[in-house]
Design a protein that fits this description.
Chain lengths: 371, 276
């Protein structure tokens, strides 16, 4: 059974449409990530699910019950806020105990639950402190503790790690994943960081300007983006994109671009959606390729092979990102760092024919069906 | 460094000390006058330290006017106004600080505009209403009228204090299981304690010092607050300076004593919040 269902969910703030007909189902026990650029409506969607924001139109169901007009406290949801929102006038212990106190749990049980949770999160030595005496990471743990001290149906987390430094963020990311796996509680997690989304989510919902772009597992989003926006939002560095045209060479389909003709792999051809344009030959496309699917060669294979000039090599330890110019197009390739090309050198580029992405130049939707 | 030291001293001498004298002088005169006889008060040149200090004034003031009643009435006005301001102002300010609704901005401006009217402009109109309702000599009416004048200012102050408390704290409380009212009472109100204290003190002082409406609406000696009671030492032909100053001194001492007793509690709450 799906725990949370949003149907045609809309939120307007005056003239701004913050959330635009969002449809999503979140399964029991799932870790769902909402991701998208700033201002795309992630927080607003989350707050509507939590009951902190009224719904303009559409429905929200939790466990099959329509909750549109239910006060937050009747929804049985715990939320973690970006700025922690600890209660400044309560000590850490009382912060974590607060949800239990409101539920009038017996004193002994509160004591025991708070201590268990504090141990779980490694904050048991902080229970007697005021929130202002904690570091950012400690505050975030306390905020998590306050959420998990009871067993709600659902956790909502709004960018809970964005105020932490990079190293702590990676650590807390793992802790949250562990915690969620162990508790098995359905979680909706909002972030604008696609790395966080990819590493944490069972499934990811990508949003843009209030609209859902794609919902799917991280691999699906990465390998089969539904449109150019998702293709370029997921993955770092972003997917290369350039204009091309599908043509036929000796019965084989190729993409003809400004800087060369590249074969399209048979598996891709098989997935090409039946198309309304009369002949394949006239099909304009936007072609996408991930940096790791471009390989570079020192020597030109034939005089006709496309040659690119190396602009910049950025070493990252294991890998290097190579910026290339070819024709008027800039491409980024990812190569092993042990033998990167030199800057200003000419290299031959190969695009993995089975890893091309093809998009409609106008709608920017993918032209490839899911395998 | 040298220059700054020198400037500090100069500003202290040129500004600080004269200001201090200006502020303290009336108090000194008040104290000194309360120990003088009427003849000595009107003597020229005036004496600074009474030649024949006397406690007679204190006994006379006590006997001439119902001082205890006056104190009680002033206190009731202070408490009444504080109560009204808190009960009406806190919810109004909370709504203005937390909710975005049509007419919010115009309403805030309207509140400010009401502050531009001097009370004296409306006192006659209000007086006729009070007479028509048969509510003369009623302290509650005075407190309500006075509160209606300071309410707007207090709401503005409180809106500022409430807006400074992040709404997420209340939202977190509501997610944790509080109602909005519960979240307001347990989160926003304690966190804006310094603001509530400031407004409460302001309202109390406003009631304690209330004069115009008491003078207009109250004719019965026993119902008068201190301000009006003491005012009766000023007659058309003569001002009973020695009695007036004695009464004023007593009123000041009692007000100060009142605040000294609650001050500890209030500031302790304030400190506890501001440390967080
Ligand atoms: N209370 C509000 N009043 C008016 N407009 C709002 C309000 N809250 C959000 N918006 C608008 O709604 C849109 C979506 O906002 P939202 O906070 O959901 O974005 P977000 O995806 O969470 O972005 P971020 O990553 O920056 O947190 C934005 O254009 C924002 O300006
Ligand atoms: Mg947000």
């Amino acid at each position: 059974m799906s725990v949370v269902v949003c149907k045609e969910l809309v939120k307007r703030f005056g003239a701004t449409v913050a959330v635009d007909h969002v449809n999503v189902e979140i399964q029991d026990g799932e870790f769902m990530v909402f991701v998208g650029p700033s201002g795309c409506g992630k927080t607003t969607t989350l707050r509507m699910i939590g009951g902190l924001e009224t719904v303009t139109s559409g429905d929200i169901f939790i466990d099959g019950v329509r909750v549109n007009n239910l006060a937050p406290r009747h929804r049985d949801i715990a939320m973690v806020f970006q700025n922690y929102a600890l209660y400044p006038h309560y000590k850490v212990f009382d912060n974590i105990a607060y949800p239990l106190r409101l539920r009038k749990r017996p004193k002994a049980e509160i004591e025991e639950r708070v201590n268990t949770v504090a141990r779980m999160l490694g904050v048991q030595h902080l229970l007697d402190r005021w929130p202002r005496q904690l570091s950012g990471g400690e505050r975030q743990r306390v905020a998590l503790g306050r959420a998990i001290v009871r067993n709600p149906k659902l956790y909502l987390m709004d960018e809970p790690l964005s105020n932490l430094d990079a190293k702590l963020r990676v650590q807390m990311r793992r802790e949250i994943i562990h915690l969620q796996r162990n508790l098995g509680t359905t979680t909706i997690y909002v972030t604008h960081d696609q790395v966080e989304a990819m590493t944490m989510g069972d499934r990811i919902m990508v949003m843009r300007a209030g609209k859902v772009q794609q919902i799917g597992a991280p691999e699906v989003l990465y390998n089969h983006p539904a449109n150019l926006f998702v293709a370029q939002f997921i993955g770092s560095p972003a997917m290369n994109a350039f204009k091309g045209r599908l043509e036929t060479d000796d019965g084989k389909i190729v993409v003809a671009t400004e800087f060369g003709r590249f074969p399209v792999g048979d598996p891709l051809v098989a997935r090409l959606k039946p198309d309304r344009s009369p002949t394949l030959g006239a099909r304009e496309v936007i072609c996408g390729i991930r940096p790791e699917d471009i390989t570079l060669d020192d020597a030109p294979v034939t005089p006709a092979s496309p040659q690119a000039q190396v602009d910049l090599v950025e070493g990252l330890g294991a890998d290097a990102y190579v910026s290339l110019t070819i024709g008027g197009t800039t491409l980024i390739a990812r190569t092993p760092a042990d033998c990167p090309p030199a800057e200003n050198q000419l290299v031959t580029i190969h695009l993995n024919p089975n890893k091309l992405h093809l998009f409609d130049p106008i709608t920017e939707e993918t032209l490839l069906a899911l395998p | 460094m040298q220059r700054i030291q020198w400037f500090k001293w100069l500003s202290l001498v040129l500004y600080g000390i004269p200001m201090l004298l200006v502020l303290v002088f009336p108090f000194i005169v008040m104290v000194s006058t309360s120990f003088k006889t009427l003849e000595e008060v009107s003597q020229i040149p005036p004496t600074f330290i009474p030649r024949n200090p006397t406690l007679e004034n204190y006994r006379e003031v006590w006997n001439i006017i119902p001082l205890a009643d006056h104190f009680r009435n002033s206190f009731l006005l202070g408490v009444g106004e504080t109560f009204l301001i808190m009960v009406l102002g806190v919810p109004a300010a909370y709504a203005l600080a937390r909710f975005r609704f049509a007419g919010r901005q115009p309403y805030l401006i309207f509140l400010l505009v009401t502050q531009m009217f001097p009370a004296i402009v409306v006192v006659l109109g209000v007086f006729r209403v009070v007479v028509a309702l048969g509510l003369l000599n009623n302290l509650a009416v005075v407190a309500t009228t006075a509160a209606s004048f300071s309410l707007a200012f207090c709401i503005w102050l409180l809106v500022g204090y409430f807006s400074a408390i992040p709404p997420e704290i209340e939202e977190a409380a509501m997610m944790d299981g509080d109602s909005r009212l519960g979240a307001m009472i347990k989160m926003t109100l304690p966190l804006s304690w310094p603001g509530l204290v400031a407004v409460g003190v302001f309202a109390f002082m406003d009631g304690w010092n209330e004069f115009l409406f008491s003078l207009t609406f109250i004719s019965n000696d026993e119902m008068m607050p201190l301000t009006v009671g003491l005012f009766r030492f000023i007659s058309r032909f003569q001002i009973q300076w020695h009695h007036l100053m004695t009464g004023s001194l007593l009123a000041t001492i009692v007000a100060v004593a009142l605040f000294m007793t609650v001050q500890d509690k209030l500031t302790r709450g304030m400190l506890a919040i501001s440390e967080k």
